[in-house]
């Protein structure tokens, strides 16, 4: 067998090995996105077999829709509460656990347990904990002279409550990522920094730890941002967008339009805008952070 024939045979084999995964990606990701893209230009409804092409009408309606603007604002408020707290708290816990010599493995497991829990089921537990009359959290708050708070029934508190539940569910995952990044930092860098006079923990953090955690920090920031915009489970189970639509976030509005009001065309347009927002937000964040990352 000549060298050229052998190379062509290897190329065909490579394509055959890649083909199943390619078809799977096409069937699970690409084709559904293309289908949603096509539906977004129609007035397709679940209660009618007849639909017609309406062009950009769904997108024009979106710009004038008060519910769309409300959902965007609610999502941004929630993200501004969730993102900084999830990043900072996870990093603090990772540093604190890494410094411990005893019970480190036990602490890692305890903090990671919420990640393994079903959020839909745990949301019901949080509903009991945050009950305005008999909730344990209000009982503790009253013991120190605070509250009671209407965690899920107040327009000013409900998004904060959603952020608190989401923080509990994701903090262990981010902490493990930061622990992996901290473990990969060579001890020789800390020794060199100490020789240069950076022997205080704060100096060590800003001169060595933080710069070397650049790739991990970028990954945690991007994944946490995507998680923030994907808020749906807790809203659907605990508040259904209330009170007075104050917790009606973007993804929940998309669900309502499609499966409650049966406006699948408009819901498809909202889904595409949702994907576009996440993509642009993650792209800008990655590009911004990547400029300050040391690999």
Report what the structure shows.
This protein has helices spanning about 5-40, 55-65, 65-100, 105-115, 120-130, 135-145, 160-185, 185-195, 200-210, 215-230, 235-240, 250-260, 265-290. It is an all-alpha fold and about 300 residues long. The protein has two domains: about 5-55, no CATH class; about 65-290, MetI-like (MetI-like fold), CATH 1.10.3720.10. The longest helix has about 35 residues, at about 5-40.
Highlighted features:
2 domains; MetI-like fold; mainly alpha
Tell the overall outline.
flat
Distance between the first and last residues' Cα: 45 Å
Q: How many extended strands?
A: 0
Into how many domains do the coordinates divide? 2
Return the CATH architecture of the largest domain. Answer: Orthogonal Bundle
What structural class is derived from the secondary structure elements? mainly alpha
CATH topology of the largest domain: MetI-like fold
Q: For the residues shown, what is the average pLDDT?
A: 88
Proportion of β residues?
A: under 5%
Radius of gyration: 24 Å
Helix percent band: over 70%
Subcellular location: Cell membrane
Pfam families: BPD_transp_1
Main location: membrane
Protein name: ABC transporter permease subunit
């Amino acid at each position: 067998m000549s060298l050229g024939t052998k190379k062509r045979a290897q190329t065909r084999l490579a394509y055959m090995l890649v083909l199943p995964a390619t078809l799977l990606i096409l069937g699970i990701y690409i084709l559904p996105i293309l289908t949603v893209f096509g539906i977004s230009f129609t007035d397709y409804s679940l209660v009618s077999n007849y639909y017609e092409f309406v062009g950009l009408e769904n997108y024009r309606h979106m710009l004038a829709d008060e519910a769309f603007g409300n959902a965007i604002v609610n999502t941004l408020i929630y993200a501004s509460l969730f993102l900084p707290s999830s990043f900072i708290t996870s990093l603090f816990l990772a540093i604190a656990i890494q410094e411990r010599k005893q019970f480190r493995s036990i602490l890692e497991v305890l903090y990671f347990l919420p990640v393994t829990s079903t959020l839909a089921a745990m949301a019901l537990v949080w509903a009991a904990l945050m009950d305005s009359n008999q909730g344990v959290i209000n009982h503790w708050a009253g013991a120190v002279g605070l509250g009671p708070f209407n965690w899920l029934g107040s327009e000013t508190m409900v998004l904060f409550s959603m952020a608190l539940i989401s923080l509990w569910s994701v903090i262990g995952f981010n902490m493990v990522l930061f622990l992996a990044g901290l473990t990969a930092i060579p001890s020789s860098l800390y020794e060199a920094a100490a020789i240069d006079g950076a022997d205080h923990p704060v100096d060590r953090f800003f001169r060595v730890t933080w710069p070397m955690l650049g790739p991990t920090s970028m990954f945690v920031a991007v994944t946490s941002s995507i998680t923030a915009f994907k808020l749906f489970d807790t809203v659907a189970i605990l508040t259904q967008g209330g009170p007075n639509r104050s917790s009606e976030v973007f993804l929940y509005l998309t669900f309502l339009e499609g499966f409650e009001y049966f406006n699948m065309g408009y819901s498809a347009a909202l889904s595409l805008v949702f994907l576009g927002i996440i993509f642009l937000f993650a792209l800008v964040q990655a590009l911004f952070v990547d400029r300050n990352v040391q690999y």
